[in-house]
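Progress note, sequence design subtask.
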């Protein structure tokens, strides 16, 4: 047979096209069509993809190539590694969605950063790298990064994603070039993380000279990518609402999200025209942040695929071909991990890098343990200086190791935290405070932390502390403060007397970090205190003079939130001894003096969720303290009053040389704010009993019952409640600020 020039040209063109096509490695058996699956984005609604995959497997519809965007990229990437739908659902059921997609990272930071976040419990921080800049997102992505690394860890030396059990691609958008990017090689974990970098929720991913965000803005259901991979038939799955919208959110955040949604709907409608089968999962009753409804969403996906049964079954294969497909996929699945021979660290400051290497060195030469690696990174990530700490396995010749990269935050350090406090002292009078904390790293030495506090309002203050790590877990921290505090005596619902105390002081602490959650410190402080009566007669002395105090503190903070934890114990034990005390101008009862007096107090709170969704929470709290045989000045006595500390009393209404009180209660989550605006809204009640007293014989045990509404918001806890004492005391309170102390 002879070939003309035209025949040869056509043959050459065909070969050229085949050579340049982005074909996955796996080829279908026999002459059946090559089937591609394109999974669309949709935030939490994308969990429905697991149900679609379950139906396809149950009905022997093989997937030869797989593409996904955003949440479709996460589910698709996990399935491409060889996971089954059952394994995917099991993984999803074990995820803490508050930690994964919420705006609180409190559970994972170290005890110093927890102290920062308790002092300023708003959910936003600002960076000062080039101006006053808000965070690039409400979630730093650390827990998602760890999840991606866990899923993809065995696939660390792929030439391309064609080598996965199911060839895979995901789509992101490069902000610098304003174009979609198809991710086909490199780190699978970073690719999956990039495709779901939803603006405002997660920070973008830097990849070389690209700045990658969620691919949904330009290619929400990548049908075209599946075609390029060689798919003859493409099944597209849409989990968004493509109908015209009548109800529009006109808030400033709402309009931004509506605009993004409109862009996604437009490109989705364009993209799905190339699909052979279109599965629309009806999810009108589910929101973008309904992560906690994973089982229901998976069921919706399965039902939607079942509704398209007539269109999908022609793509099914025989039992023999299905078994061959499963065996081919299983043969390419990796589950084994190498033993580590080395550790690499990149991106961290000098002191942090050395600490990372020392901590990770314990994993070298022992059987690989993913959980242990994650726990080490959580321990080190507790510094909260970096956006994320990501890990992956790497090869160096015949050796295998772990590479950890610290990705800096784009807006800091230094950082600024703002806090607002508001609480009514009477029915129509409030105490107000606005404060901020400046936090900088590597000031006068690598690994150091400089904190500067300033507050205005009812209790103005200015303070500074410089934390310096020493070899091992030890540290020193000099500090200084100028502060003023006003005490109010309430009678018949009004302020009957007012007393102002001012202090200037300096001090030095030294201590040891006992892991991420515990700190022990000892120190001494020296200063000058002046106090005087401003209004009425509060029964407190006029004082003026120097003071010196030694202290020993142990702090444990194992709770997972600064506002209303779902679990954990917060405990503070303090021993203070007054080496010297101010002079009292006008002596008061029993010639009181704080000089030579020692105090011990142990207090804290414990919370536990009693259901899987953490909607119902029990809590216990309390404090015991004593001044032994001393008679300290009233300004140094133990105080009771305010929410969760004998709530029917005004703050400081009850005071004494000794204290003992306990509180127990129940909180029920009534609703939930969107994740980008806050967290749960609780209603609940509690009982408190206790007393502050000078002599045991004079102790009057009071019991108070309280009910309140507590909202976890971006600006911190907002609460309103009422408390009634068995002896007739009562108080209504409303405010912004800390509840559990």
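Output:
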């Amino acid at each position: 047979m002879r070939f003309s020039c035209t025949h040869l040209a056509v043959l050459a063109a065909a070969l050229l096209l085949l050579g340049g096509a982005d074909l996955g490695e796996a080829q279908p058996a026999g002459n059946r069509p090559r089937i591609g699956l394109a999974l669309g984005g949709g935030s939490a609604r994308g969990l429905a993809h697991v149900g679609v995959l379950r139906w396809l497997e149950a009905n022997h519809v093989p997937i030869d190539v797989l593409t996904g965007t955003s949440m479709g990229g996460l589910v698709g990437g996990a399935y491409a590694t060889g996971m089954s739908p059952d394994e995917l659902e099991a993984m999803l059921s074990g995820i803490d969605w508050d930690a994964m997609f919420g705006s609180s990272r409190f559970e994972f930071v170290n005890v110093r950063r927890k102290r920062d976040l308790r002092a300023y419990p708003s959910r936003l921080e600002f960076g000062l790298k080039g101006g006053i800049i808000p965070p690039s997102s409400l979630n730093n992505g650390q827990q998602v990064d760890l999840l991606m690394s866990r899923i993809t860890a065995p696939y660390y030396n792929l030439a391309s994603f064609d080598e996965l059990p199911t060839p895979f691609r995901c789509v992101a958008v490069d902000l610098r070039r304003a174009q979609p990017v198809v991710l086909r090689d490199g780190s699978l974990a970073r690719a999956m993380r990039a495709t779901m970098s939803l603006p405002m929720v997660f920070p973008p991913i830097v990849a070389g000279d690209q700045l990658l965000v969620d691919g949904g803005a330009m290619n929400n259901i990548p049908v075209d990518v599946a075609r390029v991979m060689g798919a003859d038939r493409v099944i597209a799955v849409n989990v968004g609402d493509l109908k015209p919208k009548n109800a529009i959110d006109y808030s400033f955040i709402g309009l931004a999200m509506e605009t993004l949604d409109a862009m996604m709907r437009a490109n989705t409608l364009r993209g799905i025209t190339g699909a052979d089968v279109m599965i629309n999962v009806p999810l009108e009753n589910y929101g973008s942040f309904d992560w906690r409804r994973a089982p229901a969403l998976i069921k919706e996906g399965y039902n939607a695929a079942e509704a398209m049964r007539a269109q999908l079954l022609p793509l099914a294969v025989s039992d023999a071909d299905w078994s061959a497909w499963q065996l081919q996929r299983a043969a390419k699945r990796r589950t084994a991990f190498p033993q580590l021979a080395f550790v690499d660290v990149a991106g961290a400051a000098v002191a942090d890098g050395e600490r990372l290497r020392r901590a990770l060195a314990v994993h070298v030469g022992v059987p690989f343990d993913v959980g242990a690696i994650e726990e080490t990174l959580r321990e080190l990530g507790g510094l909260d200086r970096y956006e994320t700490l990501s890990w992956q396995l790497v090869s160096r010749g015949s050796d295998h190791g772990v590479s950890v990269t610290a990705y800096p935050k784009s807006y800091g350090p230094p950082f600024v935290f703002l806090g607002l406090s508001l609480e009514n002292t009477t029915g129509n009078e409030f105490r107000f405070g606005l404060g901020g904390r400046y936090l900088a790293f590597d000031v006068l030495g690598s690994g150091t932390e400089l904190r500067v506090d300033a507050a205005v309002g009812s209790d103005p203050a200015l303070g500074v502390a410089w934390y310096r790590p020493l070899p091992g877990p030890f540290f020193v921290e000099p500090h200084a403060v100028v502060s003023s505090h006003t005490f109010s005596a309430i009678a018949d619902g009004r302020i009957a007397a007012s007393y102002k105390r001012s202090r200037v002081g300096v001090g030095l602490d030294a201590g040891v970090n006992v892991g991420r959650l515990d700190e022990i410190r000892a120190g001494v402080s020296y200063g000058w205190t002046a106090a005087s009566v401003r209004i009425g007669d509060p029964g407190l002395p006029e004082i003026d003079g120097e003071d010196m105090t030694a202290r020993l503190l142990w702090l444990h903070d194992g709770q997972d939130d600064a506002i209303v934890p779902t679990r954990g114990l917060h405990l503070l034990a303090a021993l203070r001894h007054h080496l010297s005390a101010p002079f009292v101008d006008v002596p008061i009862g029993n010639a009181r003096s704080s000089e030579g007096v020692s105090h011990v107090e142990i207090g804290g709170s414990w919370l536990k969720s009693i259901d899987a969704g953490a909607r119902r929470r029990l809590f216990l709290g309390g404090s015991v303290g004593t001044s032994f045989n001393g008679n300290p000045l009233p300004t140094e006595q133990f105080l009771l009053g305010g929410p969760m500390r004998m709530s029917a009393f005004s703050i400081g209404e009850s005071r004494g040389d000794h204290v003992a009180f306990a509180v127990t209660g129940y909180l029920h989550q009534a609703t939930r704010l969107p994740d980008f605006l806050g967290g749960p809204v609780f209603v609940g009640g509690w009982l408190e009993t206790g007393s502050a007293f000078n002599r045991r014989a004079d102790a009057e045990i009071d019991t108070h019952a309280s009910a309140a509404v507590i909202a976890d918001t971006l600006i911190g806890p907002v609460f309103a409640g009422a408390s009634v004492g068995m002896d007739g005391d009562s108080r209504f309170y409303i405010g912004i600020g800390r509840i559990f102390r």
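The longest strand covers residues 494-513. Work on this subtask will continue into the next period as scheduled.
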